[in-house]
Prior knowledge:
Chain A is built from 10 helices and no strands. Chain A is an all-alpha fold. In chain C, helix 3 (57-72) packs across helix 5. Helix content of chain C is 79%, strand content 0%. Chain C is elongated and about 75 Å long. Chain C has a single domain, classed as Orthogonal Bundle (MetI-like fold), CATH 1.10.3720. The two termini of chain C are 39 Å apart. At the A-C interface, helix 3, helix 4, helix 7, helix 8 and helix 9 of A face helix 3, helix 4, helix 5, helix 7 and helix 8 of C.
Amino acid sequence: xxxxxxxxxxxxxxxxxxxxxxxxxxxxxxxxxxxxxxxxxxxxxxxxxxxxxxxxxxxxxxxxxxxxxxxxxxxxxxxxxxxxxxxxxxxxxxxxxxxxxxxxxxxxxxxxxxxxxxxxxxxxxxxxxxxxxxxxxxxxxxxxxxxxxxxxxxxxxxxxxxxxxxxxxxxxxxxxxxxxxxxxxxxxxxxxxxxxxxxxxxxxxxxxxxxxxxxxxxxxxxxxxxxxxxxxxxxx
Amino acid sequence: xxxxxxxxxxxxxxxxxxxxxxxxxxxxxxxxxxxxxxxxxxxxxxxxxxxxxxxxxxxxxxxxxxxxxxxxxxxxxxxxxxxxxxxxxxxxxxxxxxxxxxxxxxxxxxxxxxxxxxxxxxxxxxxxxxxxxxxxxxxxxxxxxxxxxxxxxxxxxxxxxxxxxxxxxxxxxxxxxxxxxxxxxxxxxxxxxxxxxxxxxxxxxxxxxxxxxxxxxxxxxxxxxxxxxxxxxxxxxxxxxxxxxxxxxxxxxxxxxxxxxxxxxxxxxxxxxxxxxxxxxxxxxxxxxxxxxxxxxxxxxxxxxx
Amino acid sequence: xxxxxxxxxxxxxxxxxxxxxxxxxxxxxxxxxxxxxxxxxxxxxxxxxxxxxxxxxxxxxxxxxxxxxxxxxxxxxxxxxxxxxxxxxxxxxxxxxxxxxxxxxxxxxxxxxxxxxxxxxxxxxxxxxxxxxxxxxxxxxxxxxxxxxxxxxxxxxxxxxxxxxxxxxxxxxxxxxxxxxxxxxxxxxxxxxxxxxxxxxxxxxxxxxxxxxxxxxxxxxx
Lengths: 236, 306, 222
């Protein structure tokens, strides 16, 4: 109980909310790096996953990229990237983007591929060209599952961005690592709590987005929810 | 039918793993039939500490002890509590810094290694540990800048920092922000109030990269480092003697201490010197010779092993 | 370009490599042990929890929520918290690792059980199966694909997480990575990372094979 009191005191201390080591700065650093990584991953992964799903090709690759992705140890990738790119944000971005790509590729592939073939046939039968079939039929139906993949990726990235501290980076991991070095358990706890809260907030935000983009007709479809994204493998 | 196969499968996995875990946990330190026990030795997270841990450890192994090594365990903030709670039996300490750590920064350490060690022992006895004789080998905190920075601000000694510190960023391991011999000490003794502090590592590649790359202007290094010159770093002189007698001193739990260990360790400590440390650090840092190879070589050269 | 990428430290120094093969073997074994314990203990804890969540609807969401909560805590922090209580030991690492496998296994087990078609359950009830028999002979076998998928994901994930335990003094292959970072030495870094990836892929393929063996009727999508 005393410990919890100390943690609350840490949060109530105004010194922890100002300056380059303050909570707002750290949260911003954390979100910034996470955001860039997820953005980069989307730019790379969405076109690949959607295209493969649309043509129904490369399924083995699209699905197994997730398995390979899970097999990468973020800690090792990060340090290797540090040796190559030096002491800046690039190593963290590389590691996080690699982390975010697999769930997006796999989910968007399965989402587009599993659109009811009858609907696709009907659209083509109506004379729609491939582009319209993709954008007006497949994508809207695939969107919930794609969003689930993005949600998975985002939460994983936010949790793993904690690692940036290992190579002198910023973000909320700083509190954890510095607290460990200084044997300041209160700081460690505060840092961990902040990351957990941030991850939960991101999860909720994307869940909300998912709900918004789910076409009313298939809301409440158990397949939509019981998706590949139902289990989020933690890599850090 | 299938459910039986499945149940059998589950049973097998459970059984195998129980066996595996039993094997795993008993492999560590089984009591031997000889009177020499298994000890757990640890070191801090920089290579010099690993080398020292290996030197003291291998000397005992040559006498029939079994040593469990936990290298790179962490900072003193991790290692000392581990000793106090009995999870480890030994670590190679540094007299002044260990004293100021355990007395919570009272400022009792001096430039006299004997007096500092004696004072350290008054605190260590409370946690069931003892520091043996200090070695002439010294490795104190030092602060380095690049040649360019030294030229820019005309820095040769730490006293030169006070007027310009506000424009500089200090780099060091996370604990530097709270340790009396680091950031707080620079402020109180030298009046150096830095613009910012960047947490790096304990004098490792992150520190080197940050100092050379300009992300920090001044960084904590260790005085026995072997590569400071070759990297073009200038160590600022500690003219007001912030850093005290950081002589190497073996710190061991009294429960496992006996006259044989005391005698061997004191002989080793007496034979170690700062030149040796620098040479070994250089080998480890630049040529990546293994710490335990360096330790074995040193022990052989000094007649502790054959 | 990293300022430390110098020619005297190639990505693999082969002389050092061959000298240290026994060390790599030892670390690999440690890594496998740590993973196996985490997954098995995770199964042992998750299985009864999953059955409870499946049978008693009101408990389902809270149980899944607890697992989900544990999951958002960064592993480094979770390990760090346990240290004051359980020390720098394998136990600390395992408690952390198990709490992560718990969610993966729990979710997959629950979803798997819930996926058993109602008609099959009705038929079984009609044939006179009582709840325990139904669980053991009908529901669990049919949930096997999902359960095995969960074990597979949990195993591969844990292999990656074990590397992080190096930062609290344990760690199998993570020790090699950590050594590489502290000593600025690329060889152990590369070896640790590559071995960890290979181990994960081998485990994944192996378990995929087991999945295929045990559930030949299941439609394979992952």
